[in-house]
Amino acid sequence: MNSLEFAGVALRRGAVRLAVVGLVLALIGLVGLIAFHTVLWISSNAGHFANRAGCGVSDEISPLTGGTASEATAEQRTNAAIIVKVGRQMQVPVRGQWIALATAMQESGLRNINYGDRDSLGLFQQRPSQGWGSPAQVTDPTYAAVQFYRRLLAVPGWTEMPLWRAAQTVQRSAFPTAYSKWEQHAAKLLADVDGEASLATTDVCAPRGGARGPAPAPYSGPSSGCVNDDPTSGGCLTGATRHALDEVNRVFGGYRGGSLIRATGCWDPHQWNPSSDHPKGRACDFFPGTAGRFAAGDELEAGWQLADWFRTHADPLEVSYVIWQGRIWTAGSADTATGWGRPYTGGGVYDPEEATGGHFDHLHVSFRQ
User: Fold this and answer.
1) pLDDT per residue as tens digits for the range 166-180
2) Which sequence ranges are marked TM in the entry (predicted)?
3) Domain boundaries, given as residue ranges, for the chain
4) How far is CA 179 from CA 100, 163, 174, in A?
5) CA distances from 266 to 169, 228, 238, 273, 280 (A)
């Protein structure tokens, strides 16, 4: 290679290096710009998404401080009234109006905003590109409410779903359970803007007001291993667990096929979760309804009755913790600002959004011994 050829190669290599360096710098600048605008957008919209949860997963402060119409802004009150009015005109059950309010609270803070993720707009952050309507239509509160209700009413079994699941089925959000944060607020606001609307107590994720049913006999036996027969599985139970199962049978008229409890399962190998209390004989699952289906109506009420009973009598029954309706309560702990117990995450083993994984179809009770 002569000197001219060498110089040409060197120049070409230098040009390539400069191009690569330029590309890297451009990418760094682009990432920085995106990060800056992301932080700016989140900061400017924090009030839309912050909340004090009723039964959800956040303890932040709500833009509707107490969840009543008097504490909402004029815009929020107007939009809430439109959503409820449209629901009544379409003869949507009160539960559907409650779901719509909670959805709009989560999506936009009950504000008819003209921006959002990608092309999302309006009260419900509906996307024109996904067939919700034109930008002008989805930013019309009445039109937006009608479209939300139409899609909600088309969901099979929506009246039996937890609020967050019904809303998520319509909205397809990246944060499915976020809607549950607004359950209490939406219920209060619905009552404020429509004096004729009322929600059954089973519609709101909260204890039903204390234990009902006779008190159990306290466990007075020794601390034992898994040495007692388990009538639900053919496995074994500890003395305290078998005692609690017998007391449930006595107090509630059976632990399977009864008016309150449809089925019960205690001992189980739980090979997918070796740390579970089931293979140790220290846990039972009580099903007020069908396994795999979200409890609703009388079944939901039955589950709450049993959960309250176990919480109230945790000491004499040697209860360690209770999981029900996406919440976990540990003996000796107080309820959090978000409601009953604290949110249940599944412990990295279960999907907390599923009926069984989130304990929406059954009540789990673990015992200390």
Assistant:
1) 999 999 888 888 888
2) 20-42
3) 3-44, 69-202, 228-367
4) 10, 7, 11
5) 33, 12, 11, 15, 10
